[in-house]
Amino acid sequence: MATLITIAVLILLYIVLIQVGKTVEKVRELRGESGDYEKSGNINATLMMVFLVLFFAGIVYSAIYMWPKLLPASASDHGLKIEALFNLTLLLTGIVFIITHILLFWFTYIYRQQKGRKAYFFAHNSTLELVWSAIPAVTMAILVVWGIKVWFEIFPNHDDLPKNRIVIEATGKQFNWLIRYPGKDGVLGRRLITKENVSPTNELGIDFSDPASHDDFFASEIHMVKDRPVEFLLGALDVLHSFYLPHMRLKMDCVPGVPTGLSFTPIRSNDDTRDLLKENPDWQKIDPETNEPRWKNFKYELACAELCGKSHYGMQMNVFVESQKEYDAWMNAQKPIYAGAAKADTAATAVTPETMEMGKDSTVAPAKEAGNAVEASTANAKH
Amino acid sequence: MESILGNGPEGGKLTNEFYYSLVTMHGTILVFFVLTAGLSGTFANLLIPYQIGARDMASGFLNMLSYWFFFTSGVVMLASLFIQTGPASGGWTMYPPVNGMSNVAVNQGSGLGTDLWIFSMALFIVSSLLGGLNYIATILNLRTKGMSMFKMPLTVWALLFTAILGVLGFPALLAAVVLMEFDRLLDTSFYLSNIVLNGQLMDYKGGSPILYQHLFWFLGHPEVYIIIVPAMGLVSEILSVNSRKPIFGYRAMVIAIGVIVCLGFLVWAHHMFVTGMNPFIGSIFVLFTLLIAVPSAVKVFNWITTIWRGNLRLTPAMLFAIGFVSMFISGGLTGIFLGNSTVDIPLHDTYFVVAHFHIVMGVAAFFGMFAGVYHWFPKMFGRFINDTLGYIHFFVTIVCAYAIFFPMHFMLSLPRRYYIYTNFQTFQGLEDISKFISVFAIISFLAQLLFVVNIIYSAFKGREMTNDARNPWGSNTLEWTTPVEHFHGNWHGELPEVHRWPYDYSNGFGKEDFRPQTLPLEPGEEAH
Ligand code: HEM
Ligand SMILES: [Cu+2]
Ligand SMILES: [Cu+2]
Predict the structure, then answer these.
(1) Exposed (0-12), middle (13-18) or buried (19+): which is B508, by Cβ within 10 Å?
(2) In Å, how far are A97, A250, B339, B360 from B347, measured between CA atoms?
(3) CA-CA distances (angstroms) from residue A186 to A33, A168, A211?
(4) CB–CB contact B201 A308 (8 Å)
(5) Residue-level pLDDT at B107
(6) Which pLDDT score is estimated for A343?
(7) What would the pLDDT profile of A80-125 be if each residue is shown by its tens digit?
């Protein structure tokens, strides 16, 4: 019923509009004004100015409105540099945006057709054209030089990475992340990608004859140490995924068959960011689920940023940046994969928390599918 | 509302798989079937013969073939909506491996739907190539007497460059999708290697999914120019005619498009900055990408200077042309963020990109197309389109377009192609914008319906254009010298002879403020 009424109202609206259009045209024809755009031009030019003012006001308003809802300050060293360049670009493009828009709409207004106005014949002017090729060229040169400098800092030669870095392997699969830590020895066990070695219990194809693999463990959350560099070795089992850490301002694709990587230093722990958000009105709101201010339960998150199938949006994982002490305590509580590979039961316990975590977190039905996918993989691990 | 849509994602009527199918069809149909075909397909066939003074396109046969390939391709693409497993669902870019393996039904749509998508694209590409060759041949060979290259309107220049882009770019896409079909049907490994599915290592060896991306974007980037360059041409013409002034810097405009076309082939990997490519190669692409901003800026400044001190006749076409310039500026500027690989790391594949390309390509190209339809409507139908409805269409559309896509920049942390994002704490708080955008999207849709209604109404009932007043806009170009009624051959008798460039508006000679191209130069009048 409501649908029918809506449709009827819309049809009526169109009929009214057509009648209005028709009448205006008839009146203009009778007055001999057809093809004369002066009167309507006055109205339209004024509306263009009104639009410009509204547009600028809307931008300011939306910026103020959205400010508290944007991500908190960057939590990685690279993120800071990226933000600085972002802000410079915003400043430069902002200036150009404002000037060109004022000119465009202002000209539309003041040069609207009027009796006796004669257009000024102005076909070209080499000096002007040179100037406004040179200005963007110089500006772009600054952005390119700065950008490329930071770009190489973010992706340095592999040999130049800090020695004290934690190496973590992150592998995307539908629709879940396999996060492998090297364990106490700090070395990830070798992988052997062969038909024999890869199996439902060992999707990564870890070569357990390599002793370095014996203390490797799977994690259901990512843990990092504040101010200690990390290197993520990225890959994917089945299709493209993208390892995206919004708070770190970083992402890198995970490509089956082509290893990629990402290294950075987290500079703000979860607690640091939580403290920042205490001051934020949007985060002071009470979360109806926990009955606490939202900032209390703040956490970093990992997301997938490359369409990888129907539950692409479900590849959420919690991320923690903490002190070395907390990190060590967490690490000590983890169970190595190797024992699990030998004894099926232990494997199940080693991975179960992950299942629960994902299942609990997905409050929406379809996201549960992601959880189910994890359950399936755990079930595989039990075989 | 709820009875139609259900209650949000939870318990909603749109499943995730169907959502991805719709997004894919949306992107594919709009980029290829609407904006590519609607701008260079239609306006090229309408305006090239008219504006260069030719009786027809060089090869009617190629034209027909191109049309029927396009038609079939459209039928195949739309047919995929009705098959049981649904249409392709991998996004308009259709990256492998998710779309590159048919033996695993990753999404429903990655079955037959994807095969149909590939088949349809192959047909579309053939159509584009045939059409493009015909445009190039016509422009180079069939110009009327006196119509040297630098006497051509910018529309024709733009359509020429567009055709060149298509002819050089589309074969790469054809290769990309055909190889993908081989992977799917014949188990080759062009894009696949080391794939583990359900704990089993598949037989694919030695391919790389990145190869597909290179091939795809080798067309994909030029494709965005295939869409925008014809719009630039239409807008240049409309701004000049309605300002009663020559386009400022005619040669600079031609050179700028030329530079954009050349650089356009050297920047494709800016869509792939975070695929793990060698950082050195990435830095080269940063350089070329940001270089494109220079000719783009020149075009914008030239348009603004064109309306400066003009006598602006604010027809609906003119308003849309001005709106086009605004959109091109707004969207082009966010390209400068994305073109800098460093800044692209967080922004890639987020709503910031969605906002960027919808403003600069989606909305701007549509504005160019609207401007073209309003301006050449009397030429097409022999009747005028209703102006009042046109103004309503314009103002509602520009307000909605900015209300939809400007706030979207604030969603810069949110990955695109998310069916739901409330499962992330990080993205909670963006719901307000989502709702705001949805409201304006619906209003905007209603305004587009009004445009369609206006076309149909005016084509039958609009004010008639008479043969005595066959040049209603006081235009210099040749299409307005033909009679109102359509017949094969365009001109009765001899073809018109051209004596001057198309932009002699208000040059101080003659009683009128325009000097048609067929008018010989008077003593003292400068040739351009
Ligand atoms: C100053 C000029 C421009 C620059 C520097 C620029 C730069 C970029 C970059 C770097 C991306 C990739 C972003 C990402 O995925 O991370 C991008 C995306 C895109 N740009 Fe632009 N752009 C410019 C102008 C244009 C124009 C004129 C158009 C079309 C008319 C356009 C259409 C697109 C489209 C369609 C995409 C998204 C493709 C996709 O991933 O689905 N851009 N642009
Ligand atoms: Cu994904
Ligand atoms: Cu591009």
Answers:
(1) exposed
(2) 20, 9, 10, 17
(3) 84, 9, 12
(4) no
(5) 60
(6) 47
(7) 999 999 999 999 999 999 999 999 999 999 999 988 888 899 988 9
For the CA of B27, the closest atom of ligand 1 is 41
Residues with CB under 6 A from ligand 1: B 93, 224, 227-228, 270-271, 289, 292-293, 296, 332, 335-336, 338-339, 344, 347-349, 353, 356-357, 360-361
Q: What is the distance between the alpha carbons of residues B15 and B17, in angstroms, rounded to a whole number?
A: 5
For residue B172, which of B129, B133, B136 has the smallest C-alpha distance? B129
Nearest Cα to Cα of residue B476 among B312, B245, B306: B245
Per residue in A164-184, pLDDT (tens digit) is 999 999 999 988 999 999 988
Query: What is the structure's pLDDT at B101?
Result: 86
Nearest ligand to the C-alpha atom of residue A307: 2
pLDDT, residue A346, reads 40
pLDDT, position A116: 84
- The CA B169 to ligand 3 mean position distance, Å, reads 13
- The residue whose CA has the least distance to atom 22 of ligand 1 is B335
Say whether A199 and B244 touch across the interface (CB within 8 A).
no
Ligand 2: centre distance to CA A359 (Å): 18
Atom in ligand 1 nearest the alpha carbon of residue B274: 16
SS3 B491: coil
**Could you give the ipTM of this predicted complex?**
0.93
Report whether the peptide linkage leading into residue B87 is cis, meaning its omega lies within 30 degrees of zero: no
Identify which of A307, A302, A320, A298 has the alpha carbon closest to the alpha carbon of residue A251.
Answer: A302
Task: Give the residue carrying structure tokens 């299409």.
Answer: B479
C-alpha of B284 from chain center: 26
CA distance A131 to A140: 14
Q: Which residues of chain B have pLDDT under 70?
A: 1-12, 103-109
Identify the nearest ligand to the CA of B219 by its number: 3
**Reported CATH class of domain B13-481:** mainly alpha
Residue count of chain A, please give it.
Answer: 383
pTM for this prediction:
0.92
How many residues are listed for chain B in this entry?
528
Q: If you ran DSSP here, which 8-state letter would residue B501 be given?
A: -
What residues of B are in contact with residue A14 (Cβ under 8 Å)?
449-450, 453
Domain at A158-379: CATH architecture: Sandwich (2.60)
Which ligand has an atom closest to residue B106 CA? 2
Name every residue whose Cβ is closer than 8 Å to that of residue B305 and which is 6 or more positions away in sequence: A122, A128, B248, B249
Q: Does residue A375 surpass a pLDDT of 50?
A: no
pLDDT level of residue A373 (50, 70, 90 thresholds):
very low
For position B5, what pLDDT does the model report? 53
Place of tokens 């220049």: B157
* pLDDT band, residue A340 (cuts 50/70/90): low
Domain borders along chain B are 13-481
3-state secondary structure of A262: strand
Choose the mutation target among A66, A310, A369, A372 for the interface with B, i.e. most B CBs under 10 Å. Answer: A310
Average pLDDT over residues A266-291: 91
Contact with chain B for residue A170, Cβ under 8 A: no
* Minimal-distance CA residue to ligand 1 atom 20: B357
* Whether A89 and B282 lie within 8 Å, measured CB to CB: no
How many Å apart are CA B496 and CA B478, to the nearest integer?
Answer: 8
- Taking the C-alpha atoms of residue B413 and residue B426, their distance in angstroms, rounded to an integer, is 9
Chain A residue numbers with beta carbons less than 8 Å from the beta carbon of B350 are 305
pLDDT score at B4? 54
A112 and B528 within 8 Å at the Cβ level: the answer is no
pLDDT band at A368 (very low <50, low <70, confident <90, very high): very low
pLDDT of residue A378 exceeding 50, the answer is no
What pLDDT shows up at residue A376? 36
For the record, the structure tokens of B32 come out as 């290829």
For A98, other C-beta atoms within 10 Å of its C-beta total 12
